[in-house]
Amino acid sequence: MTAGERFDDVRTFLHQRPTVGTGAAAKAVAEDASALVRAEIALAKAELQAALAKKAAGAGMLVGAAVAGWLGLQGVLITLGFVLAAVGLPGWAAAAIVSGALLLVTGVLALLGKRKLEAKVSLETTKQNVEQDVALTKSRLPSRRQGEPHE
After folding, report:
1. CA–CA separation, 54 and 43 (whole Å)
2. Which helix (H) or strand (E) covers residue 90, if one does?
3. For 93-104, what is each residue's pLDDT tens digit?
4. Residue 47: closest CA among 136, 146, 99, 125
């Protein structure tokens, strides 16, 4: 006696019918697919939020670069005034050092901000998950061979 025959005997013995019918199975599949789609949408949102946070940081750095650049320009102008008016080193040398430092900060912030803004926004994780979900779903579907009766 095979395992299937024993199961049929037990079912007959207990007078039970299969617990999951076609309708219930279809409903379970639809619910699972719906939950899967919701999870993938949540993942896409999380990826976009992370990418946008990086873009916002880059934009903030560019604003910082603009402020530092403006201050650096003011420093250069003050330095130029001291150079024209001063005979000795201390006044304009101090202004030149401050202006140079501000301009250096401006350059660094501008380069960092530019790199952040050039970073690509990617939904690669979501794409890979959806591809895996589709492949898994296809692998679990029963294959229909020609000549087999349909249930």
Report:
1. 17
2. helix 90-118
3. 777 777 887 789
4. 125
